[in-house]
Amino acid sequence: MTFSYEHLFEFTKNILLKIGCSEKDAALAADVLLSADLRGVDSHGVARLSGYVRLWEKGRINAQPKIRVVHETPSTAVVDGDGGLGLVVAPYAMQVAIDKAKNAGTGWVAVKNSNHYGIAGYHAMMALEHEMIGLSLTNASPLVSPTFSKERLLGTNPISVAIPAKEQPPFVADMATTTAANGKLEILQRKNLDAPIGWVQDKEGHPTTDSNGVKKGGALLPLGGDREHGSHKGYALGAIVDIFSAVLSGANYGPWVPPFVAFLDPDPNPVGDGIGHFFGAMRVDAFRPADEFKTHMDNWITRFRKATPTPGNEKVIIPGDPERELEAERRNNGIPLLDPVVEDLSQLGERFGIKM
Amino acid sequence: MTFSYEHLFEFTKNILLKIGCSEKDAALAADVLLSADLRGVDSHGVARLSGYVRLWEKGRINAQPKIRVVHETPSTAVVDGDGGLGLVVAPYAMQVAIDKAKNAGTGWVAVKNSNHYGIAGYHAMMALEHEMIGLSLTNASPLVSPTFSKERLLGTNPISVAIPAKEQPPFVADMATTTAANGKLEILQRKNLDAPIGWVQDKEGHPTTDSNGVKKGGALLPLGGDREHGSHKGYALGAIVDIFSAVLSGANYGPWVPPFVAFLDPDPNPVGDGIGHFFGAMRVDAFRPADEFKTHMDNWITRFRKATPTPGNEKVIIPGDPERELEAERRNNGIPLLDPVVEDLSQLGERFGIKM
C-alpha cells in the first residue's frame, strides 16, 4: 500500500505526541524518520516507529529529554542526549556543530546518552544550507564481526558526508561500513533469496549465503567481505566510527552498545551512557571562497557524471543522486509500505486511538 | 639485501641534500620516506627515491619551497606547499593542524601545490604525542575507476586515523580506499601470480585476475570490488578524500591530479595547483578528560584483541599492530630491499657521488 508523505507525517507525529513528546520534538522526529522512507532507506523509516515506542515503554527512551552541552571548546562540544530519541538529539547536536563552525571555522560534536538517530544523511545534510560540509557518524547495536572474529562487536556504523555544490545538486554519501546494510538482507529474507558471499558469516565464522545467517547467530561482514578483499579496512572504518561516536563522548561502544530491539536487555555493566554519535560541520569559506569551491564541485561532479561507463551500465552515479531522485518521486506519488509494516502501524495506531 | 635503517637514512638524506634540500628538510623527508620501509609499506619508501629525483629534474618538485599558510580561521588553514616534496610539506601542514587544535580544540588543514607525501600514517601519528587524534588524507595519480566506469578518475586516496591509548599502543588505521593497494599488485606481478577478482578491471571495464591489468590500461577497483559487494562505498570514500584534499584546498582533483611518474606529463589544463592533502588534529580533552578517554581506549582495544577468532585464525588484529611490530623488527634487524631497488639506488648514488 502507498501512503502520502503528509499522511505518514501526521500519523507519526501524533503517535509521538501520545508518548509525551513536545509538539516541536514530535514534528522534528517525524521529519527525520520519514526522510528515510522518502530516500528509500525503508529499514530506517516509519517501519521502526513501533520499535521506538517499545523502547519508550521499557523506559529506555525519554520522551522529554533535557538535551544539553556538557563540555566544550571553541570548535568542539559533547552533548548529553538525556536518553531522548536520537531523532531529536541528533539534529540538536548537529546544530551545535553548525553554530561552532560559524565562529571557529569548523564544529565537532560527540554525543552520548542517545538512541537510534534514523538515517545518518539527514543530519549531515543540515550543513548544506549554511554552505558547510556536514559529517554524521553513529554507532549501533553489535551485528558485525571484525575481520578474523566470530563475535559481533560492531554495529553497521554508518558514515555520511554531505558536500554543497553550485548548479549541481550536493554530493551526499551515506553508507554502512559493512558490505551490505541489514535492510538489504531483510529484502532477500522476505523473497527467500540467498545473499552473495561476502555479506554474512555463520555462527561458526564461516562465510555463508544464508540471508538469515545473522538471525541464526552469525554476523554481518565489514565492507570488503573477507581479508583478501579488504574487510580489515571496513572493520577499521567501523571501529573509527565507534570510537569517535562513543569513546570520545562517553557513550557505550563495541559489544556494550544497547540493542535497538526492546526484547533484548542492555548490558548490565555498561561502559558509558546510551549510544553515541559524532557530527562535524566545516564552513567551506574557512578554506577558500565559497563560490570558488562550489564552482569546482560542479566541475568535479560533471566530470564524474560523464565518465565512460563499463559495458552494460549506463553511467557513473554521484553519491546522493538515487536517493534524491527517489525522494522527489515519493513526495509526489507517495511512500509504498509493505503489508506487515502497515499491519504493525495499524495496531500501533489502534492502541493510541490514532487512525492509520 | 638488508640495510640498516641508519644506512638508508644517511643515503636518502645525502641524495636529498644533493638536489638542494636544506639539512632540516632532507632529514625530515628521509625520516618520512623510511617510515614506510620500517612499517612494511615498501612501495612508498626508499624505492621511490629515484622517482622523486626524476620529478625534481623535470622541475616538478621544488627542493627549496616557501611553504606557507595562505588562508585561515581559528580551526582551519590552507597551506600552499610551493611545489615542495610532500614529505616535507605534509609534516608542516600537520603541525599547523596541531597548533590550531591547541587553541581551538581541533585543527583542519587542506594543502595544495604539494607532491606525494609518503605514507598517510606518518602524518596522522604526529598527533599522538600531543594527546590528539590525527587524520591524514591525500589524493594521488588517477589509477582507480569509480563503480560503473571504465575511466581512471581517482587515486588510491588513503585514509589514516591515529588514536592514542594509555597502556595499550595507539590505534593506527592507514588504508587505501581501494580493495588492494598498488603495492600489493606489484608483489603479485613480480611473482607472476594472478590477482583475486575484485582488485582490478581490464581496459574494457571487465573484472580481471591479470595482476598486470592496470599497466595494460585497466584500473584498480574501489574497496568492495563490485557493486554487489559495496564498491560504490569505496568509490564514495575515495571521492571524499579527493574533494577534501583538493577541492577544499585548490589543488588538482580527479583525473587532473599530476602523475607521480616523471615520464608522464601533467594535464596541460590543470584545475588547481599540484596534488592535495587534508589533515586533522583533535585534542582528546576537547571532548572529555584525556585520562578517561585513554582508559576507555585501552578497554576498547583489549576487548577487541580477545575476541573469539574464526576457525583457522589466531586473533583479531588492532589496526596498527602489524606495522608497529614490523617496525620494531626492522629497526633492529634492518630493512630488506629487492635487488632491482638496490640496483636503482646504487645507480642513483653513483650519479651523485654517494655510496649505496
TrEMBL record, chains A, B:
InterPro entries xrefs: Mal/L-sulf/L-lact_DH-like_ah (IPR043144), Mal/L-sulf/L-lact_DH-like_NADP (IPR043143), Mal/L-sulfo/L-lacto_DH-like_sf (IPR036111), Malate/L-lactate_DH-like (IPR003767)
UniProt keyword terms in alphabetical order: Oxidoreductase
Keyword Oxidoreductase: yes
GO molecular function (one): oxidoreductase activity
Pfam families registered for this protein in UniProt: Ldh_2
Keyword presence, Oxidoreductase: yes
Family: Belongs to the LDH2/MDH2 oxidoreductase family.
Protein name from the UniProt record: Malate dehydrogenase (NAD)
Source organism phylogeny: Bacteria, Pseudomonadati, Bacteroidota, Cytophagia, Cytophagales
